[in-house]
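Lecture 7 notes: from sequence to structure.
We start with the chain below.
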Amino acid sequence: VAAALGVAAATGEIDLAAWNPLPRPTPAPTLIVRIDAMRAAVAERRWGDAREAARRVRERLPDDPEAMRVEAAALFQTGRLPEARETLRRLSAREPEDLGLRHTLARVEAAAGDPETARAILRAIRSHPRATEAQREAAMGELIQLDFTHPEPPPRNERRRGSDPAPSVETGRP
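Predicted structure tokens for the same chain:
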């Protein structure tokens, strides 16, 4: 058969480059294609696709910071706050100087119901020696927002004027 194909190719009767009796395997997507797909899904706010694309990138690069961020954003946007929080905590531990990442973690902590941790992160950003003025202002804005959405209770030893309970009729003391 091989000799006959060779003769047919030599005489021009068959184009061996085009002839293949077996289906060609579909090439696996390259890492660049996967990263591009991930970025496109984020840009189009297709969070399910973004998460899947990030997962596929992380198959090849398990600790890729961009894929971890995309995965966390997709988890957050689809209401999976505990998973988003855990992903951001792992990434923040690996990149402690990334103040933008820490700011995002603070927002997820607040959304997940932990405003005290969010406040601690935002205060750390404000006092960080490498924080830009814009980062400090953004952290302050988030702190103010937290005060509206999750007011801090006053310290236990500090009473506000007018908040003392009325004296007891029996003892005369609050």
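Points to note: The mean pLDDT is 82. Residues 133-149 form the longest helix (17 residues).
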